[in-house]
């Protein structure tokens, strides 16, 4: 029962993390730049992996997709690829873990086969979290580097909401994947503690001594 609870809880955390991964990937606020000229007029600019947006004090927001892919910085293209790979890993992991749960039935699949599916799903979840963690940390490191560089002549940005969503997603997905892998180890340990004793009596014979005649038991009476 405890193994089932761990599996279900790990799957729930991993699915929640995968949803945050999707939100982080589609977020337009990976980095934010705000500047205020006076009390009346203010504007802000924020960028994501797929588009850049600008908003003014009146609440009007204008977004525009990047017109080129090869013209983007190398780290942005790498972060795009890592986030897409993370989403694909997470999707496959959800399918495998749903089939590998002990509370689900799929034909005549044994518990050992289900455990292997759960282990594979947990490993893929952990890889998905590592990809997200690498992407958001790399992107954040570049923002901090450009912001603290006194010779940088471009627009200086700060960390946006999309990065925090990515960090939270990575933690949940890795934690969920670790719980799924741990449930497989607990299942293997419980199956190995059982004892089995097979006795085969073939080829063995039991010899018994012939009963001795009791001379005193047979008496003749006249």
From TrEMBL:
GO CC annotation: bicellular tight junction; plasma membrane
This protein's name: Claudin
Gene Ontology biological process terms in this record: intrahepatic bile duct development
InterPro entries referenced in this protein's UniProt entry, alphabetically: Claudin, Claudin_CS, PMP22/EMP/MP20/Claudin
Keywords: Cell junction, Cell membrane, Membrane, Signal, Tight junction, Transmembrane, Transmembrane helix
Residue ranges crossing the lipid bilayer per the database entry: 75-96, 117-141, 161-181
Membrane topology: Multi-pass membrane protein
Molecular-function GO term, any one: structural molecule activity
Family, as annotated: Belongs to the claudin family.
Localisation per UniProt entry: Cell junction, Tight junction; Cell membrane
Signal peptide boundaries: 1-25
Function: Claudins function as major constituents of the tight junction complexes that regulate the permeability of epithelia.
Originating species: Pygocentrus nattereri
Gene3D superfamilies: 1.20.140.150
């Amino acid at each position: 029962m405890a193994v089932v609870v761990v599996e279900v809880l790990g799957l729930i955390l991993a699915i929640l993390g995968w949803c945050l991964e999707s939100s982080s990937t589609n977020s337009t606020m990976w980095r934010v730049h705000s500047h205020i000229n006076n009390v009346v007029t203010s504007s802000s600019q924020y960028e994501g992996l797929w588009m850049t947006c600008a908003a003014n004090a009146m609440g009007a927001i204008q977004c525009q997709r990047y017109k080129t892919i090869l013209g983007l910085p190398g780290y942005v293209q790498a972060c795009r690829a890592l986030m897409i790979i993370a989403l694909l890993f997470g999707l496959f992991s959800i399918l495998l873990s749903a089939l590998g749960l002990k509370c689900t039935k799929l034909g005549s699949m044994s518990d050992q086969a289900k455990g292997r599916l759960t282990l594979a799903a947990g490993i893929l979840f952990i890889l998905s979290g590592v990809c997200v963690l690498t992407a958001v940390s790399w992107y954040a490191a570049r923002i901090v580097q450009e912001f603290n560089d006194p010779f940088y002549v471009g627009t200086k940005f700060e960390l946006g909401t999309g990065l925090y969503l990515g960090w939270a997603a990575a933690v949940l997905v890795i934690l969920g994947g670790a719980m799924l892998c741990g449930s497989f180890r607990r299942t293997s340990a419980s199956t190995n503690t059982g004892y089995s004793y097979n006795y085969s009596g073939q080829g063995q014979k039991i010899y018994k001594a012939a009963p001795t005649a009791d001379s005193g038991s047979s008496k003749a009476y006249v």
